[in-house]
Each structure stands twice: as structure tokens, then as C-alpha cells.
Amino acid sequence: MVNRLKLVVLFAMALVAFAGNSILNRYALLEPAIDPASFLVIRIVSGAVMLVLLVWLRSFFHRPQKQPYSKGSWWGALTLSWYAIAFSYAYVELQTGFGALVLFTAVQLSMLAITLYQGTRLSRREWLGVVIAFAGFVYLLVPSMQLPSSLLAAMLMAGAGVAWGFYSVHGRGRGFPLANTAFNFVRAIPFVLIAFWWQAPELIVSTDGVMLAMVSGAITSGVGYAIWYLVLPQITVTTAAIGQLLVPLIAALGGVLFAHEVLTMHLLIAAVAIIGGILVVVLKRT
Questions:
Q1: First to last CA, the chain
Q2: Which residues neighbour 265 within 8 Å (Cβ) at sequence distance 6 or greater?
Q3: Hey, which of 126, 172, 197, 253 has its CA 20 to 30 A from 239?
């Protein structure tokens, strides 16, 4: 069992990886340094290669497990592919703030709906925390939002959020997280290749675009998702859902720390609301 401090660190690492992934997607696809289909294929293949290599290195330097590694599942691969495909194509059509609002709203609703369907009931305090955190999340994004010019893109982003919600819930109690994530990526390759062929895009490929896609796939997606699968069995679905509202906040704070953006009162208020709401949920039993 992962101890509490280590769990918090791993949870934070996963969320930072998610924020980094959004930033890499933004730079790669909005320049554009690469087209969505090429970015998608390179991202998934790079993630698969990195994760399979890590699984091999772990088996080489550690004694073999008594039971064979889990090899993911087709459902995990399908939801991963569904998320990655919808996200890549929606991202180029939607303004960043609105896209983030649609994506994370869909993630919250899908994960909470699954929780309720499975028979788990949220307490009043948990609902209060969810509402506070979500209000802070909306407040954070409202100034940068513009209504979408493409309804299809908005629907794709909502679909990406639902897929990610299912992928996250599927990761709970799924054996060895690194191997599960690795084989989910491997199984996802045929799906993204079909999407690539179906779209038949005009290729836009540059060195910067390829590098951004590789880093997104190998590090912020591959390793980040493996950490996420390690964390998920240790926390409730509600905590996993609401915790992801920190991702846009982390990206915004990263801009303050590394891009010399201004730390505004608006950002501070949003941060207090999001973090406060999450603490209301997480500390409900203490």
C-alpha cells in the first residue's frame, strides 16, 4: 500500500503531467507544428514504446512476479483511443478556455455518474466540496472563454471527457499499473491508425511538431498515465474526478512561474475555491 505522503506526491505528479500534456498539445497543434492525425499516431506509438521499455527494464532489474503481468484490456485501449482521437481533433477548433471547460465538465459528470451507478452515494459534504471546486474551476476559465464556432468540435471534446472518465474508472484495481498502461497503449495503436487513415489528412510535419508529439506520448501521456493508474486504486472515484479540476490551475500557475505571467487576484480566488473544495471532499472523514 502506498503511504499517504507518497500518494499525494504521485497524485500531484500525475496532474502535472496532464497539465504538461495540454501545454504540449497547444504548442504543437495551434502553431501548427504538426497536424492532429500525425500528432496522434506519434503520441500513442511513443507512449507504447516508452512504456514497454519501462516494463522490460523493470522485469530485467527485478525478480519476476509470481503472477504474469496484466496485459491491459481492449476496453482500456478503446477508451484511451477514443479520448486521444477526440481530444486531438477538437483541440484545433476550440478556444482553450472553452475546450477545458467542456472536457473537464464531461470528466466530472461521467466519473460521478459511474460512481452513483455503482451504488456509491456522496455525502452532503462531498457534494458541497464538488460544487465549490467546480465553481472555482468555472470562475478560473470564464474570462478566457469564447463560444465555439464548431458544434462538432465541442461534441468531440465532450466525448473525450467521457472517454477519459471511463478510462480512469477502468484503471481502478487493474493489477500492475505500468504493464496495464503499456499494453493499453500498444492495443490503442490499431485504433489511431484507423483514424489516421480515415481522415486522410494533409500532413503538416516539422521537427518541432514531431518532438512535441514524442514528449507528449512518452512522458506526459505514457509515464503520466502509468502514475495515474498507480494512484487510482488508492483513492475514491470522487477524489479522482474532482482532483482533475486542478489541471487548468496548474497550467495557469506554471505560466506565472515559468512564463513570467502576472499572478492576478482572479487566479488566487479561483485557486482558493478549487483547492478548498477538494479539501472539503478529501478531508471529509478527518
A1: 20
A2: none
A3: 253
Longest CA–CA span in the chain (Å) reads 56
pLDDT tens track for 8-67: 999 999 999 999 998 898 888 877 889 898 999 999 999 999 999 988 887 766 655 555
Residue 1 has pLDDT above 60, yes or no: no
CA–CA gap between residue 70 and residue 161 (Å, rounded): 26
Cα–Cα distance, 182 to 226 (Å, whole number):
8
Considering the entire predicted model, what is its pTM? 0.88
- Collect all residues with Cβ–Cβ distance below 8 Å to 221 and sequence separation of at least 6: 17, 21, 43, 44, 47, 84
Phi-psi region of 41 (alpha: psi -120 to 50; beta: other; left: phi over 0): alpha
Q: Grid cell 496485459 — which residue?
A: 71
Contact by Cβ (8 Å): 157, 94: yes
Q: What share of the chain is helix, strand, coil (3-state, %, to 5)?
A: 80, 0, 20
C-alpha–C-alpha distance, residues 42 and 39, integer Å: 5
C-alpha cell at 54: 519501462
DSSP 8-state class, residue 233: G
Distance CA 29, CA 9 (A): 30
Candidates 103, 69, 66, 65; CA nearest to 84 is 103
User: What phi and psi, each to the nearest 5 degrees, are found at residue 46?
Assistant: -65, -40
Closest CA to 29 of 71, 87, 112, 74: 87
Q: Mapping DSSP to helix (H, G, I), strand (E, B) and coil, where does residue 87 land?
A: helix
